[in-house]
Amino acid sequence: MVKSIILQKIKKTAIQAMIPVIKIRGIIRNFPLGQEIVKVLKGIDLDIERGEYVALMGPSGSGKSTLMNLLGCLDTATAGSYELNGKNVSNMTQDELAEIRNKEIGFVFQTFNLLPRTTALDNVALPMIYAGASKSERITRAEEVLKDVGLADRMDHKPSQLSGGQRQRVAIGRALVNKPSIILADEPTGNLDSKTSLEIMNLFDEIHAQGNTVIVVTHEADVAKHADRIIRLIDGIVTSDEKKKLNNN
Ligand code: ADP
Ligand code: MG
Fold first, then answer.
1. Which residue minimizes the CA distance to atom 19 of ligand 1?
2. What are phi and psi of 180, to 5 degrees?
3. CA distance to 68, 222, 223, per residue, from 218 (Å)
4. CA distance 218 to 190
5. 70 C-alpha vs ligand 1 centroid, how far in Å?
6. β strands within the chain, DSSP E
7. Is the pLDDT of residue 6 over 60?
8. Per-residue pLDDT tens over the stretch 173-196
9. What is the mean pLDDT of the chain?
């Protein structure tokens, strides 16, 4: 009995290792605007494997944030299919999407989006409340994550008492706290100076090196060069998708 449960688990893990974390097909996103329809995503197919480090690039208005919001289950497509970890999320209800988002996705925004009157520790612990963790579990895990992002000495600070880079570290901690399948970051260095940007990108490199799947939207070549694969979007269509050549030396 126990043996068969273990075998089932191994089988499930092996299958999960083979299927892409993200598989989207024919994704279209239109927005009604007055009498018109704005066609933003015009048919996107994409597979992203577990452990990839992807930069999503493209001019302003090309649909990068729209695509990230769909990948992050913050929005749903007009047409097309989306499988996240083998689960079809295209037809889920708002409640089901909220649950998937909490469990599987860590989102990092350009403007940090922290609760202003809440400490770093409580900002990071917040997603664990929705995940149903006990208070002691939440505190232990949030402390661990804040140490990992280099903020061991800032846990009781509120966002206004932190620098931009530190705020983004808190937001990254919050994204990591539920151990999601993917980390999505939409221009995470867009509000930071170049030195702080580099520190934040080094942190994403570490997070990736620990086995996480990371997708970063950026305008900047300096940021994109941290990734192993660069996907370019122009006017709602993928125009190029290049993997960095592995250097075996
Ligand atoms: P990017 O992140 O690449 O700069 P966005 O995905 O934010 O681009 O936006 C792409 C296009 O979609 C823009 O032209 C924008 O005006 C339009 N758009 C985005 N969201 C909406 C919306 N809710 N309603 C109407 N148009 C939208
Ligand atoms: Mg954007």
1. 66
2. -75, 165
3. 12, 9, 7
4. 8
5. 12
6. 22-33, 36-48, 53-57, 79-84, 87-88, 105-108, 182-186, 213-217, 229-234, 237-243
7. yes
8. 999 999 999 999 999 999 999 999
9. 93
Fold of 50-76+95-243: Rossmann fold (3.40.50)
Supply the pLDDT for residue 246: 63
Judge whether 224 and 204 are in contact, CB under 8 Å: no
Write the DSSP symbol of residue 247. -
Query: If you measure from the C-alpha of residue 64 to the centroid of ligand 2, how many angstroms do you get, rounded to a whole number?
Result: 5
Atom of ligand 1 nearest to the CA of 58: 3
Q: b/e string for 195-204 if b means 16 or more Cβ within 10 A?
A: ebbbebbebb
Run of H or E residues at 185: strand 182-186
Q: For 105-140, write each residue's pLDDT tens digit.
A: 999 999 999 999 999 999 999 999 988 999 999 999
- Kindly report the protein residue whose alpha carbon is nearest to atom 26 of ligand 1: 31
Average pLDDT of span 32-52: 96
Distance (Å, rounded) from C-alpha 8 to C-alpha 147? Answer: 35
Pick the ligand that lies closest to the CA of residue 233.
1
In the chain, where the domains are located: 50-76+95-243
Q: Residue 3's pLDDT is what? A: 72
Does the beta carbon of 37 lie inside 6 Å of ligand 1?
Answer: no
CA distance 88 to 91: 7
Query: Residue 16 has what pLDDT?
Result: 65
Residue whose CA is closest, atom 16 of ligand 1?
61
- Nearest residue (CA) to ligand 1, atom 11: 61
Q: How much is the pLDDT for 245?
A: 73
DSSP 45: E
Ligand 1 center–CA 119 separation, angstroms: 32
